[in-house]
Amino acid sequence: MEAKMEKIDVNVVKFEVKVEADKFKEALTRAYKKNVKKFNVPGFRKGKVPMNVVKKYYGVEVLLEDAVNFAIEGSYANVLKENNVRPVDFPKVEVVQAEEGKDLIHCWSNCLSRSRTWSIQRVKRWKENLWSNWRRSCC
Description:
The chain is of the alpha+beta class. 45% of the residues lie in helices and 20% in strands. 14% of the residues are buried. The model has no long low-confidence stretch (mean pLDDT 87).
């Protein structure tokens, strides 16, 4: 999996993620297993239709939506952890390429939380000011 990060704004980041073809194939298999009970093909019992028959009879597009969701779900947490990013809300996802046998390419943008990093000296000064203000108001 490859991920390219681009800063759009102070707290907005855009990622372009490329999921390998074999990982996307696993996601297609998972989508097939999830939906196999829904397929009804003459000559097969419901839920017993092989994947290649489903692809010929219904087309791969039937499985693509769930497969893309599974692939994005798997890559989202990894990309955030690798780039040390803490999102505030759900990402806006755009699928660039989703075809069987090819890499899945998707982009998503996210708002980030603004984290404050305080130095030890700054924390000590803050505590001293807090205590001095408290003493003045009490005494």
